Amino acid sequence: MAQITIFARGRDDIPVYTAGSNGLPEFLVPKASLVSVVEDDPFFRDSMRRLMRSLGYTVEAFPSAADFLASPRLAETACLIADVHMPAMTGVELYRHLSEAGYAIPTILVTAYPDDDIRARALKDGVVCYLRKPVDENHLMRCLRVALQSGEPPEQKS
């Protein structure tokens, strides 16, 4: 990975910040944070995987909630991005299942079919963000920062 380091003016021993190949300062990209994506649509799943990698995150993608729940990566997941509408177990059901099982994984839900009632209940239950597809990259980045810092959800501020 190529890095760019910017030093204080006239000093080659005082770095101001270092940026990775994605151009973001390293302090903005938590390298150790695993983002798990659970999405039944293979095109969106692959797109989200590529986006997370381009932002510097470690990412694992799963085609279903069952695959995620059976994965050894479950325990190391720092943030979960899940589709609301999936067969067998929805993203909301997955979030509730994880909460009931004692996993406090900050979760971002995404959907092509937004529903105000589902959104309100999910946010009340503790979901960090509820985003409409196609996902706005800047909004997603804000949600990721909040999820990984365990701060107040951006959805609650407005």
Structure report:
With 158 residues, this protein is an alpha/beta fold. The chain has 2 domains: 1-29, no CATH class; 31-157, Response regulator (Rossmann fold, 3-Layer(aba) Sandwich), CATH 3.40.50. It has 6 helices and 7 strands, in the order E-E-E-H-E-H-E-H-E-H-E-H-H. It has helices spanning 42-54, 65-69, 91-100, 116-125, 137-149, 154-157, and strands at residues 4-7, 15-19, 34-38, 58-62, 77-83, 107-111, 129-132. The strands form 2 sheets. A 5-stranded parallel beta sheet has the order 4-3-5-6-7, with helices on both faces. Strands 1-2 form a two-stranded antiparallel ribbon. Helix 1 links the parallel strand 3 and strand 4.
Ordered list of secondary-structure elements with their pairings:
Layout: E1 4-7, E2 15-19, E3 34-38, H1 42-54, E4 58-62, H2 65-69, E5 77-83, H3 91-100, E6 107-111, H4 116-125, E7 129-132, H5 137-149, H6 154-157
Parallel strand pairs: 3-4, 3-5, 5-6, 6-7
Antiparallel strand pairs: 1-2
